[in-house]
Amino acid sequence: MDYNIAQLLKQPIGAAREYDLHEDLHGLDPALDLTEPLGGKIKLLRSTSGVLLALNGETSLRVHCSRCLEPVVVPVSLSFEEEFLQTLDVISGVPLDASKEDPALLIDSHHELHLADVVREYLLIALPMHPLCREECKGLCQNCGYNLNDGPCACDANAGDEQWSALKSLLKE
User: Measured at the alpha carbon of residue 103, what is the angle toward residues 35 and 58, in degrees to the nearest 5?
Assistant: First the structure.
């Protein structure tokens, strides 16, 4: 996800470019199991200190249901704006001080935007906190771990946890 923006940086402030986005992001992060490419639009706008990027896109991720741990595919939408700052003046080649800025938001010395790190961060933020395979998911048996969506388990529901048996004996006294 690299874009050469040297010509845009030579344009006056307010100049814009728009690109269609269709990126295969497999291997971007081991925590992200993408099931389809990231599709959408990228808008680049020349600013006083670099380029303002606006990305609107959609993809799908394979995650695990928070109740039964079965894999489920969930749609994810990305919509963000970030300003990428120049490290070199495009006309004179003079280095610009950007040492205090986030390295992921810097335009490199070849006047290229590298979007992979930024997109990865926004995808991780966009992951659902409690994805469900379906609303009526019954989850796992707390005693034996059997998936209750497949039917009732064979364990004794009244057995309880053995680690609390010493405290249960105090209740009987």
Answer: 25
Number of residues written out for the chain: 173
pTM (global) more than 0.90? no
Exposed (0-12), middle (13-18) or buried (19+): which is 77, by Cβ within 10 Å? exposed
Alpha-carbon distance 29 to 124, whole Å? 9
Residues 53 and 132 in one domain: yes
Kindly state whether residues 104 and 129 are assigned to the same domain.
yes
Reported as a single tens digit per residue, the pLDDT across 29-82 is: 888 999 999 999 999 999 988 999 999 999 999 999 999 999 999 999 999 999
Q: Please indicate, yes or no, whether residues 9 and 91 belong to a single structural domain of this protein.
A: yes
Spell out the alpha helix ranges (H) of 10-140: 116-126
110: CB partners within 8 A, 6+ apart? 4, 6
Contact criterion met (CB below 8 Å) for 101 and 85: yes
Same domain for 157 and 128, yes or no, is: no
Tell me: do 88 and 158 sit in the same domain: no
Domain with 165, as residue range(s), is: 141-173
